[in-house]
Fold:
Amino acid sequence: MSLVVKTTCLNCGKTIIGEAKEDELGMSIICPSCNSSSDVEDNAQEIHYFEIEFSNEPRNPDGAEGNCIGDYSICILGEREPSIREAAEFCKADMEKMGYKYVVNVIEIPKEEARTFFDIERENDFPIFK
Ligand SMILES: [Zn+2]
Structure:
């Protein structure tokens, strides 16, 4: 799994969420706004992608098992994995908009998969679960 971090561009000051590349000089990241390279500090925040499954049936309410598939899912960014309860709170507006009552599963997915399945083009503007 590639390392995705949240950091600040040293050139334009924008918040960057993206993949850090490692070379002989250490970890760096390219700013999508100004294309300049910034060093990734040791304390940069690592970001993970989570698929949040929605359903109208409260299946698997404790979220212990990984195989419960909902009727609809969205992708969120998080500094850590939310519990089912935290995910429901974080995704409240999306659930209301989509008409679902429950979060039935939270699955960490690789960035590549998030890219394939979800519209995360505007990920720099996404709220991040902390
Ligand atoms: Zn920049």
